Amino acid sequence: MKQVMTMPIFFRSTPVRQPLAFDSIGNNWPQDPIRRPKGYPLFHYLQTESGQGEIRIQGKSYILNPGEGVLISPFLGHFYESKGPDWRTCFAAFTGTVEDSISKMTGGRPFIFTDRSQGERIAGLIRSAVLQYENPPTDEKALSICCYNLLLEFVEGGYTHDLEREELYKRYVEPVMKEIENNYSLELTVEDLSRLVYITPQYLARLFERFLGCSTYEYLTSFRINKAKGLLITDPHLKIQDIARLTGFSSVSHFITMFKRTAGVTPLQFRKLN
């Protein structure tokens, strides 16, 4: 992992070989305003160390006081900025050969807020990881365990602001997410999914945009691509056409096109990188 300038922030610069790993990590960071209307491609966590920040997700604003943080799922639109002078944060973005399992660890929740008691533990794990990067050579296995321990904070702890009380989410979006998780390998379409909850495809897409920051089709495609990544890594002898079929793509050419659009490389290139 390489360090950027002299600031306490590190980015991964080597291929991912561990089940879970930090794609980027840092602390004591003078946080600049961030606007991501289409979200970030990885799960990432942001926590206030000092000062105060404001984050906007799904049309609602929340204040992050010292020790408070939020884990945001991939491709969920969000914006954040300082609410005063010298907002400093710690943060981490997560990857790994089994990164698709993170959504299961978090119960499929699009974002999770943490309180100060959790924040103390998470900040400690981030400090520990940063120290390793500051004093190479790093122990990649130990860092993977640290990453796993950090994500465990979101298995039993954490809470979602208002989402569990959002009737539209629970009635329409959550059942569709479960259907995708259970039957992504089948030839599911947006029309099939909307019929499942007795609403139009257009309305379902608007609900997904509202609660998850992406359309129904984008969520389905992203889920399938993550499953394909797992197969590419765990079964190096499995043919690309078989992976396309097992992850619900109707043709190999469509699978390759969507994979490259999402991951930035072809399936074969991704397999060689990992």
Description:
The chain has two domains: 155 residues, Jelly Rolls (Sandwich); 108 residues, Homeodomain-like (Arc Repressor Mutant, subunit A, Orthogonal Bundle). It is 44% helix and 20% strand. It is built from ten helices and eleven strands. The strands form two sheets. It has a seven-stranded antiparallel β-sheet with strand order 1-2-3-10-5-8-11. Strands 4-9-6-7 form a four-stranded antiparallel β-sheet, with no helix packed on it. α2 runs antiparallel to α3 and α4 crosses α6. 34% of the residues are buried.
What's the short version?
With 274 residues, this protein is α+β, with helices and mostly antiparallel strands. It has helices at 102-105, 116-134, 140-156, 167-183, 190-196, 201-212, 216-234, 240-246, 252-263, 267-273, and strands spanning 2-3, 9-11, 21-30, 34-36, 44-50, 53-57, 60-64, 69-72, 78-82, 88-95, 111-114.
Pick out its properties.
alpha+beta; Jelly Rolls; 2 domains; seven-stranded antiparallel sheet; four-stranded antiparallel sheet; disordered N terminus
In total, the number of domains comes to 2
* Class from helix and strand fractions: alpha+beta
Runs in which pLDDT lies below 50 for 5 or more consecutive residues are 2-6
The CATH topology of the largest domain is what? Jelly Rolls
pLDDT average, as an integer?
86
CA gyration radius, whole angstroms: 19 Å
Strand content: 15-25%
Supply the number of helical segments: 10
Q: Please describe the biggest sheet, giving its number of strands, its sense, and whether it closes into a barrel.
A: 7 strands, antiparallel
The end-to-end span amounts to 16 Å
